[in-house]
Amino acid sequence: MTLTGKNCCICEKCMRTLYAILAEGFSPEEFGFPMTQEMYQKHLEMLKNGEIQIPVIFWADIIKKLSHNQKLQDTNPVAKYLVEKFPQYGEKYGVVNYPTRISYFSSTDVQADDVSHKIGSKVIMFKSDLNLETKEKAFQSVGMNTGNQVFSSSLEKILNLEVSPWNKIQKDHSQLNDIKAVVTTDLIWINQNSNFDYLYERLSKVQTPFVPISIGLQAGKLDPDFRLNSSCLKVLSAMQERAILGVRGEYTASILEKHGITNISIIGCPSLYWTKNPDFQFEKKEFIGKKVLCNFRTFYGNLTKSEKHYLTYCANRNYTFVEQTSLPFLISSVNDSRFYNYINNWLIKNTKLYFDTDSWRTGIRGHDFSFGGRFHGNVICLWENIPALFLTLDSRTQELTDFFHLPSIRMEEFDREKPIDYYYELADYSEFNRHYKEKYLNFREFLRKNNLCE
C-alpha cells in the first residue's frame, strides 16, 4: 500500500489480496487494484527472482482455488506459475479440499428408525489424518477451513464411519468396484469456475455409485443466472445416473434443475442431524452470563460498512472470536490504519482456533450466545446448547438457514446501536423446532434410497 492509502499492487499483501479476488472469480479492478498485463508480468518476474516471497500458509487456499480455473491459468501467467510451482496445493493434482468418503457395505439387517445403523458390518471414511505439526499443515489436513470438521464428524457419527487415509486406494481405483457406495463431500462449495475433472476421472473408472452430500453453490447472492461449467455438469450428470444427489437448499436445487440435474433431494447439512433424534427440540436458555462468541467470513477483499460495524461492535465488547481459516486480517481490506490497528489488536488477544470438534466444543462451553457469518461455527454452538444467530453473507449460508428455518438476518441489516439482548431475542428457534422432525425424516429417507440405511 502507498502512503496515499491506495493499493500499490506490488507488495506481498496487495498481491495476496488481488489473487484471492481472482481465485473467487472476480476482477481486482472492482476492488481497487488497477491491474494491467504488464503488472501481471512484473509480478511473475518478482516471484521468479525472489524479490517477492510468499508465505505459503496464507496462499495455500488461493492456489487451491486457482487450480480450479484452467481458463485463468491459460490467460494469467502468475496463476499458471503458482499452480505449477506449488502443485501440492492444487486439487487437480490430487490434494482435495474436502476429502472423498468411501463406505463399505454388506447385507446386515438394520433398525428402520435409526440412521446410525448401517447396512454393512464396516463403514470407512477416507480423509486426511489431522496433522498438527505446524499451523500450515493443520489447515491443509482439514481442507483449509476448520468448519469442515463439524461437517465430516457429523457424517462419522450418523453413519458410524471409521476413518482411513485416502491414499490406501489412491493408486488403484479398481478397488472401488468392490464397494457398494462412495459418499463424497467434494461438491459442497461450487463456484462458476470450479473444476471437478479429478472427481469425474475417479467416477469414470468404476461402476460404484458416488453419493454426494450437501451439494452447494457459492454466490454472493441468490443469482438466478448462476452457470454451471462443463466440468461440474459432467460429473453431476454422471453421478445422477447412479445415485440420488443430496443438495443443500432450494436455490442450489433450482439451478441444478435448470441444467438438467434432476435426480436430487434437498437435505440441508448433516451437521444439523448430529442428534440422531427426529424429536430433537432446541431449548433456549435465559440470557444471564452474556458471554458471547462471534465469527466472521474469510478476510479477503474490502469490508462493507456493516461488516466494519459488526467487527467494531464485537471488539468494543471484547467478545471471543472463533477463526476458521488461515487468511489474516489485512489493512488492505479497510484502508484505515486506525480501524485496522483497533480490530487487529482485539483479534490478537481474543481469537480462538480449533482443529477438532472435541476441543472446539470444550473451548466454547460456558458461553451464552453466538452470532456471526460462519454456518458451522454457529452450528457447533447448538451442539453445546448455545443459541446462535446466523448473519448471512452469501447464497450457501442463506439457503441453509432458509431450509432449516434457523434464526438469521442479513449482515447488511446489522445495527451497531442495538444491544446484544436484541440479537439474542432474534435467535428464536420455534420455527426450527417445528420443522426439525420433517427435515430429519427427509434426510433419513435420502440415506435409505441410496442404500446407506433402511
Automatic annotation (TrEMBL):
Domain GST N-terminal: 1-90
Superkingdom of origin organism: Bacteria
InterPro entries: Glutathione_S-Trfase_N, Polysacch_pyruvyl_Trfase
Protein known as: GST N-terminal domain-containing protein
Natural source organism: Hydrogeniiclostridium mannosilyticum
